[in-house]
Amino acid sequence: MTVRRLIASWPVVRQLTGDDRLGLGAAARSDRSAALVARTETADRMVKSICPYCAVGCAQRIYVKDEKVIQVEGDPDSPISRGRLCPKGSATKELVTGPSREYTVKYRRPHGTDWEELELDRAMDMIADRVIATRAATWDAPNRRTLGIASLGGATLDNEENYLMKKLYTALGAVQVENQARI
Amino acid sequence: MGSNMAECHPVGFQWVMEAKARGARVIHVDPRFTRTSALADTFVALRAGSDIAFLGAIVNHILTTGREFREYVAAYTNASAIISEDYEDTEDLDGLFSGWDPETQTYDPTSWQYAGMPAAPSAGTKESSPQGEAHGYGSKLEGAEPPATDPTLEHPRCVFQILKRHFARYTPELVEEVCGVPKARFLEVAEALCDNSNRERTSAICYAVGWTQHTVGVQYIRTAAIIQLLLGNMGRPGGGILALRGHASIQGSTDIPTLYNILPGYMPMPHAARHGTLDDYIAANTAPAGFWGHADAYFISLLKAWWGDAATADNDYCYDYLPFITGDHSSYRTIVDMADGKVPGFFVLGQNPAVGSANGKLHRAALAELEWLVVRDLVEIETATFWKDGPEIDTGELRTADIGTEVFFLPAAAHTEKDGSFTQTQRMLQWHHKAVEPEGDCRSELWFYWHLGRIIREKLAGSTDARDRPVLDLAWDYPLLGQTGEPDAEAVLREINGVGPDGRTVGGYTELKADGSTACGCWIYSGCYADEVNQPARRKPASEQDRVALEWGWAWPANRRILYNRASADPSGRPWSERKRLVWWDGDAQRWTGHDVPDFVIDKPPDYEPPEGAEAEHALRGDEPFIMQTDGKGWLFVPSGLVDGPLPTHYEPHESPFSNPLYAQQANPARQTYRRRDNRYNNGNGAVDYPFVMTTYRLTEHHTAGGMSRFLARLSELQPEMFCEVSPALAAERGLVNGGWATITSARSAIEARVLVTERVKPLRVQGRDLHQVGLPYHWGWKGLSTGDAANDLFPLALDPNVHIQEVKAATCDIAPGRRARA
Amino acid sequence: MTRMGFFTDTSICIGCKACEVACKEWNDVPDDGLNFLGTSYDNTGALGADTWRHVAFVERPRGGSAPPSSPPVNGQDAGSSPAADALDTGSAGVRWLMSSDVCKHCTHAACLDVCPTGALFRTEFDTVVVQQDVCNGCGYCVPACPFGVIDKRESDGRVWKCTLCYDRLKSDMTPACAKACPTQSIQFGPLDELRDRAAGRLGVLREAGVSEAHLYGADDNDGVGGFGAFFLLLDAPEVYGLPPDPVVTTRDLPRMWRAAAGAALALVGAVAAACARPR
Amino acid sequence: MRPAPVTDETATGYYGNPVLKAPVWKPVIALYFFTGGVAGASSTLGFAALLAGNRRLARSALLASAAGIAVSGPLLVVDLGRPARFLNMLRVAKPTSPMSVGSWILSAFAPASMLAAGSAVTGRLPRTGRVAAGAAGVLGPAVATYTAVLVADTAIPAWHDAHRELPYLFAASAAASAAGTALALTPVPDAGPARRLAVMGAALELAAFRAMERRLGEVAGPYKEGRAGTLARAAEACTAAGAALGLVAGRRRPVAVAAGALLCAGSLITRHSVFRAGFESAADPAATIGPQRSRRAAG
């Protein structure tokens, strides 16, 4: 039985018994080829997104399997992009899953010569301390502000993030808040 | 012009190609022959930094040949407005407008006003916050009365005649001399534009940072605005001026600004000299006519959104919780202060100033003067590691152990790892949903700032110091999601949209009140969460909608896709052309209707005349489409809001090998400069030491300063190294070999690059001699997979005075074969 | 099943290389080396095991001399008016041609013919695909291809080339490159439809005065029986690095076997003659 | 560095890049062409000698055949990118693929050749040995010539365009090398057929090479210049010297050994020359473009 099946699966036999005598097509097809499907079909879910590069705002579909991004496609529903993506947009999967990404906090102490490890919570606490101390040291009471804390960035961030940033900075009296739109 | 759309916005360029296939003519005017030029019907090479001469000559061509769209110009622009008797033009003062104060190096714009208008506040010192950008959406005048006009456009002081005189010397011959564009070539473009702009046809102008990154950048765009208003191309489908912006949410970060001089919705940051109290602020920023007439409602709603219950009528809605600005606190000013040791702390988020900003060396020196630095990014960018592997460490100019900056690098979450909205280049908000949880320590900025605020508030709790009240009283409650405690981005968007007295979301900014009963984080975004629905997340397939696709995403304001679209119809409310109809007055229904959301009071008839005492939008007539302008008109002449003149004028770039053939005034007199040892300029007769013009640009294969591209193999292999583009003639003159190395020097620095010799770069004949231009893509730095020197190191801080943007599209350089010296 | 293929209309290619990246992201193709080649904006060089879409960048003088094998050139660029050309002193005076090359999925595919293992096979979409679970890296297909498409990935030992996204096709999806292409320079579909569309496009271009436009690989009678992935070009094929008249090598195989038979007989004859001589 | 991009010269195509891919085969394949040739022609010579009753010659030829084929197998496997998958060669039987045809031939030839040699050396199973020798002898010319079809059945001009001559060149070269091997291994009195075959093989090899060069015309370059050209001249010298030596003084054993070695060297170098020429031809865009352009121009 198994032997027979083994023999039957031998492409030479399929050549002799089927239509593909020259062994250029169906006879030569492997089991893997026969069973092949696009990996997006076996994704656990598809999430709708927007390309993070330029401001055209192309729509993306993010395919997720086992909590990993396995593919990023253009979304043909978009009236802006009609499913198309430029090379950068097409490289989005590497952007979000590539080996260059950093996943841990790094800390360089003053005059230090290399990075050190730091817990995220500890880093947050230290940064909060720095903000409070610098703010106190540089407080300009008549103008209700500090010129000791500056911020640069926002054009690559979400509106909601820019909103919270501006809200917090303004409450702290930090006014040197800027982003790429100026550059 | 000023845009390389095919390379920088390839997917947007599909529409240009589609238009071309349908018969549209694509004209590309640029210093370089790019991939856009390759696909254009017509390419015109012009000298970098000479666009106003070219555009101004188009204005002149329109006016001298009578090609303006007369009815449109007369009805919808301020062409007929009569300007103050005190106004003097650059033609009269050899390159200066009236009001120039050589002492302060600034203009007093009083004489630029409409005749009979009260004087606007002085633009003040150059370091002050200009009004123009603060009212980046619409402009404001002081007077309530419509200006005196001459509908025949014949009055010698009417805008139309001033315009004619101002541009009279901008001839095809001048274009040839200044821009290096042959006369016939120029005329071909001017004629094509005129021929295609009328009732039946419209033309669009696309630009990008090729226009903004100049010391006269704002005026470049102004010139285009004049052309489009004269030709009747504004507010109409297929027309307009399209700013092609370069970052996913750079529009959003201006609307909800991480910018020093504005608050959400283009409301100015309070200025110490002008906005001492809430009443001062409201008075200064509320326009007598147009939708800026409700600035009080927008502003008080913002204060309510920020300080919630703590903001009451009794405490002026916490107005005194807002810090004052006192001058220029923009990026470059701040960096200069940082280099001088005046700024101890710095947050950098998704940006890479160590290589991405002009005069990178100055930036790196500034970073080394910090006490502490927080860098948040996906990868370890140059800004995070300048202290250990920057070029100055290499050359020995800086020693790691000498740098006292404490650096925190925090890995960021990618867009796939967080919910949120981007605002794309056409003002459309689009929501991206979180696909996966961020790994390790990666977090969103939403998480970072909310938790930073939380920790600071915890540490300050109980403080009695008045300065801590704004922090402690902040409305800082958002639902937290998941194990990391991620603030709910939709809740933030809802706050941005605004809520009414009933606690439900408002439907739009017209529902906002100045009595503290509404709260709204950004008035122009009001409506983005109307009916408690996340409107930017709408994704009705394009195939199931008409081509305006109003149910995909949400565009501010009020989901309008084309601004000022009332202008697509004639004064009586009928479309100028059936072919080009967009919105029109439906007499039966007594409403404006059409394919787009009408950008007008929906039931204001075309023949509406404001009654005595009408305010805000009610003070504008039914045939005044530019509803954010105090006079409802498109401004050919800008009486208020700009600090460097009411009309565009050709000035040479700050660094130029040529003298200005039009005026004794060489460069924009109001431009912002920093004369310091670490920001040297090639001034005087620049042609000697640095005879060539250099310009920076992007490539399709990379993204800005490279943080999102140079670290990716699939993009890096496509453009693996920094290179410069030179003509065969320059290569021959300087002994440069294709594929070899060149060193490019400027008054600031020297960088090296691989050489790409190409016929696409040709010398231009300017003022009787051949000019060579050197092209420098600016994506590189020393980190990542694809590395190279940063082109930005070569460029100076020399800024546009209106918006403080640096001039990196034209400066002077020299070039020699071989690699740069080390150590 | 219907034969599926690509029509690459180079007259609307903007050289963005989205096809190259989209292909690599989908098919997990490694980078092909980070080398600055100094060949216009092309730093990929050619198709190969690690490059299944390759965008060629050709800088040519306007109205430059055309090779004899190409249709006559009347000195005009795509879509430019004659007036524009006459005034061309202000422009760069150069044409920049971009073209995204790919496996041609030949009707008569040499790689497929010569493959000894059946790793290469013709799919139900009439495309030519390497089965990576079968290929043993004999390398025969590499010199057999008249376009220099297929190549061996040394780190892996097997040969690789465009599969026309066989897995995506099986899931009724468009190949990654065609889907990404911003201007639809790369079009995917049933080959018959694509040929009709290409003929229409050619007509439009010719009418607009672009007389140098021509189709490459749309002829069933050419040396490989027509391409499954064909092109609209604006200059001679060789300008883009394509062979002007490719022929499938196996077309001559019968003659080769006959020559081999003759040679074998000669060998037998010689041996017989050598041994038959009396000692 | 490459020349500056803009050029009117389109004969070298795209920046002078090759149109074709160079073969990925390593020089062991050229070596296999030689060992396969020795094996193939030797088995025919051996069988013929057997029929003629020349047992000594038959023995040495059959032995050479077995040795040749024993070496060939590993050479082929070593060159595979995935050697463990060598059995996939018998997954299909494709007449369109000379390598597939060759694989099936080899899989029949190799055991036959081994068996014949074993029998000849040990004297056991004489009848089986004879049948095996017959089978190998009949398959031998195929083994010796299919490799010519294999290289000719590519897109490389210097190989493909020589497809009429290459089989003769390979057959002659195989004959010369088989004769050379036999000459060296066989006592002088029994080596007469080998000497005659050597002369015929060498003469045919030299003639076939000339004919091939003539046929190739504008794409013959690699055989005349460069490394392949140098190899071709060296091969010619060895082959001619070997044949002459064998003819003139082949009756002295040491000279016969030397002549045999020269013939084998000639054959080996010939295969290397052909092998090399393919790489050089593939690398030259003009070789691909030129003839095709002419062909198109001719209509």
From TrEMBL, chain C:
Stretches assigned to the 4Fe-4S ferredoxin-type domain: 4-32, 94-125, 126-155
Residues covered by region (Disordered): 60-87
EC number: 1.2.1.2
UniProt: [4Fe-4S] cluster 4 binding residues: 115, 135, 138, 141
Protein residues bound to [4Fe-4S] cluster 2: 23, 162, 165, 177
Cofactor comment text: Binds 4 [4Fe-4S] clusters per subunit.
SUPFAM superfamilies: 4Fe-4S ferredoxins (SSF54862)
Subcellular location: Cell envelope
GO MF entries: 4 iron, 4 sulfur cluster binding; metal ion binding; oxidoreductase activity
Alphabetical UniProt keywords: 4Fe-4S, Iron, Iron-sulfur, Metal-binding, Oxidoreductase, Repeat
Known cofactor(s): [4Fe-4S] cluster
List of residues binding [4Fe-4S] cluster 1: 13, 16, 19, 181
Annotated Gene3D superfamilies: 3.30.70.20
Primary residence: other
Name of this protein: Formate dehydrogenase O beta subunit
Protein source organism: uncultured Acidimicrobiales bacterium
